[in-house]
Amino acid sequence: MTNPNRPRTWWPALVLLLCFSPLLHAAGSSALYPVASLVAGILNQPLFPESAVYTTNDDIVIRGSDGINLEANVFIPTSGESSYPAIVFINSWALNEYEYLAAAGRLAEQGYIVLSYSSRGWGNSGGLVDTAGPKDMDDFSRVLDWLLANTATDPERIGAAGISYGAGISLLAAAHDDRVRAVAAMSGWGSLVEALYAGQTPRLVWGELLTLSGELLGRPDPAISALWSNVRNHRNVEQTIAWASIRSPLNYVDQLNANGTAVYQANNWGDNLFQPNSPLELHHRLNGPKHIDLQAGTHAGTEIIGMLGDGNTRIWNNVQRWFDSHLKGVPSAIDDQLPVQMKVQFTDRYEGFTAFPVPEARPRRWYLHPRSLFTPGSLRESPWQSWQARSIGISSWADTLAGTGIPLASQVFTQLKVPVTAPIPLLGQNRSIWFQTGRLDETLAIRGIPRVTLQITPADRHAQLVAYLYDMDWAGTGKLITHAPVTLPEATAGETVAVTVDLVATAYDVPAGNRLVLVVDTRDILYEYPEGGTTRVDFEFSNGQLSTLEVPAL
């Protein structure tokens, strides 16, 4: 359990200080400033930008809903207007009020009051981490109260923004407080339930990373580690789902719509913490002004790269354009973009669409045909027909060469157009099964969420499957397109069930001459495997038990 009164862990900050001290001293107003500012902020040694067009104040303490102190800073333009639009930044997980200093300076130069605060349990703010819960919502409203009472903020022109944790709080706060007119949510979530437990599969790597960083750099509520332990062990899951549900913006769509909140989202195809499916569902269900940018990269990767530079990136430019449009009423370039913008993987090309699901995309359906002794399974447009049913089993005793790559790192490499690959013919038939199309006659432009339905029979009381979609070239090398896991923690041994898996949304072009390949195995390093040891899963093929792959394609 975490002691809320323990001294803040000092050694991570000391390591950063020793490594980056020369950088901090050399930064000044140079091109190194954004990097130095972020590092210094983590150390609670802020480097504020300086400008004649705004002032800064780092001595702000706001009283939270239950009497705790919330540490904050504010940038105020000096142009002498009677009122200004305002933006509130909320910190990412494990960071603090100094995360956005460079971005705040740029926005203040454009005439915005910008306040950043450390949410409870982070930085020098009091209390325990509430993980975007009710206390965080009350705190946010107290921050707005302070902003309106102490600055020339126009109450009709307030926005909220953040990355990751800050994105989720921004969306939820806008649903709870109708004073928020516009939101910019970068690498946020729609459903926290899905982020933790989609497909009844615990997100092992990210869950452990978040709980560890919370212990090192924050003061987490002890309930957080207990709830995560429940998820990992498939125990009292209903309790965790209830906890996560009240922290899921998808459950507050009606409030966002009633408030008329203008919602900008940016998410990354390779974000295996907040995978893009639930943000896309949120976008779909919103009926007010909305926009979503989707591109390659890991969680918060593209946003942080923008922060470390001069801010001249698509996402950060669109954040300012969104606020210009909806807080200032100034036409901007984002008004000319279609509301769904997808960057096609391993290209420099964005494609715009009017909605999601993409109206122009039509479902392409393939039926899974079983492998033979000498040929792999196939994907065909007609169902498998045979007078005799077939059953093909795979073992879960070990992982295969199919996978999502190196956690975090491989998804960063996709931003550099380096794909995750697998040698499809060498995967091994005892631990995996795969199905492939013939060589494609034309490019297959996937835009959306592929879906797999499998007829399986678990041999034990638990089972896990991981489905991977690959683009395979003539040599048998597969480039990973997308994937998703599914777990049956309480299966009935020997009972055949139909399992449907929605893969992670993507935009990907499979070139003519290549093959589309569906691989299924039982393990991936990203995900927790259920207790109970090695087991076997049989894939069933018969006239009445059809397994399918559906892909939305232009």
UniProtKB/TrEMBL annotation:
Molecular function terms, GO-annotated: carboxylic ester hydrolase activity; dipeptidyl-peptidase activity
Signal peptide start-end: 1-26
Domain Xaa-Pro dipeptidyl-peptidase C-terminal: 320-547
Keywords: Hydrolase, Signal
Top-rank taxon: Bacteria
PANTHER family cross-referenced by the UniProt entry: DIENELACTONE HYDROLASE DOMAIN-CONTAINING PROTEIN-RELATED, POLYKETIDE TRANSFERASE AF380
Stated name of the protein: Acyl esterase
Native organism taxonomy: Bacteria, Pseudomonadati, Pseudomonadota, Gammaproteobacteria, Pseudomonadales
